[in-house]
């Protein structure tokens, strides 16, 4: 089964995956990939541009390979804002889409406390597109201790 976990930055997507995925599952999370490709002391978020770009390429390769194995393992893919093309692909694959959103006020507070200022624009964009996209399921899954 393919699980696509979506939601705003700092919404708790990684925490949701940690609570549901097992050690045998495949987890594709850009932040985790970036951390694995950077040296000691690199930030958990707010990655450097080059590290982000290298990690994005690795993520695409991981997705392509993982999708070949859906009959044998569950795949958890964190995708903050999937494009219409990506959403169509996920539908064709019968993915379960999980939206993790603790609410805009909570997200903005977390972003101000832990993320780069530029992430505020991503939050605004996510909520604008989320609201325009109509009703979607929203989980109240508790996030990590912030």
Brief overview:
This protein is α/β, with parallel strands linked by helices. The chain has helices at residues 13-20, 30-37, 49-66, 84-92, 104-114, 119-132; strands at 2-6, 26-28, 75-78, 96-99.
Task: Please identify, by name, the CATH architecture.
Answer: 3-Layer(aba) Sandwich
What is the string of SSEs from the N terminus onward? EHEHHEHEHH
Number of domains: 1
Strands of the widest sheet, in order across it, are 2-3-1-4
> Any idea what the shape is?
globular
In CATH's first tier, which class applies?
A: Alpha Beta
Amino-to-carboxy terminus distance: 30 Å
Q: Which range best describes the helical content: under 10%, 10-25%, 25-40%, 40-55%, 55-70% or over 70%?
A: 40-55%
> Could you list the spans in which at least 5 consecutive residues all have pLDDT below 50?
133-146
Name the CATH superfamily classification.
P-loop containing nucleotide triphosphate hydrolases
Characterise the protein shown here.
By secondary structure, the protein is α/β, with parallel strands linked by helices. It has one domain: P-loop containing nucleotide triphosphate hydrolases (Rossmann fold, 3-Layer(aba) Sandwich), CATH 3.40.50. Helix content is 47%, strand content 11%. A four-stranded parallel sheet has the order 2-3-1-4, sandwiched between helices. The protein is globular. Mean pLDDT is 87; it is low at 133-146.
